[in-house]
Amino acid sequence: MSLFSVQGLCKNFGALKATDNVGLAVDAGQIHALIGPNGAGKSTLVNLISGLLPADAGSIVLAGTDLTPLGMHQRVRAGLSRCFQITSIFRGASVRANLLLAAQAHAGSSMRFLRPRDAEAALQEAAAALAQRVGLAHEMDRIAGTLPHGAQRKLDVALALASRPQLLLLDEPMAGMGPEDSERMTELIQVLKDDMAILLIEHDMKAVFALADHITVLVYGKVLVSGDAEAIRGNAQVQAVYLGTEEVA
Ligand SMILES: Nc1ncnc2c1ncn2[C@@H]1O[C@H](COP(=O)(O)OP(=O)(O)O)[C@@H](O)[C@H]1O
Ligand SMILES: [Mg+2]
Question: Which candidate, 16, 142, 170, 190, has a CA 20 to 30 Å from the CA of 215?
Fold first, then answer.
């Protein structure tokens, strides 16, 4: 049994089948990459999984829980977390304030019986642990919007980690990054894999082939092929789809 699975998922925008009977499964402890040319339906699929968009048909199951009827917040509580292609940080607040807010949002009732001073200490500790996790421990007092782009993406990942997800959705975490930042983000994702399964949407094929245990290729809303990195690399249909584009180096 896979940790996470999607079956028969469909989403139409008018006459356009943006998601056309998609099925995929992510096993515990794995990084599953979703690739495909622009307009293939990657973001739509992520929006359906996170609950931002309602599906027209199909089911989404995480660790035995049917997420399909649940709203976005309930899906987070069920163990799903997402990083957005557009960063979701509060740019005018410090890194610490961003992390405290995220920690507080997910602490919920566990803080109810603590004295205020102890609750505050627990939140500070959680925020510090999140910063440590993504390598931002030395930037806690920095205003988030003044961080370099790569560090802002790391903060965005830290916010997604606050809910302690079983499955993390990463929608183009390397977007807009230079080679050095991409390299560091690749290392971070590799470390996160110890604690959660990851569904990674990414254009950077170097990162995809370095990280992914399993790759699904989406074209025109449909799964073209799904398999391990070697199977995908050698697949003639995949090569044909990408031939002449710059997305696959
Ligand atoms: N809200 C929407 N309304 C209408 N069409 C959309 C909407 N979102 C995406 N599409 C269309 O659905 C297709 C898939 O888009 P998208 O999921 O963004 O692909 P990708 O992320 O793979 O580039 C595209 O043809 C896009 O124009
Ligand atoms: Mg997209």
Answer: 16
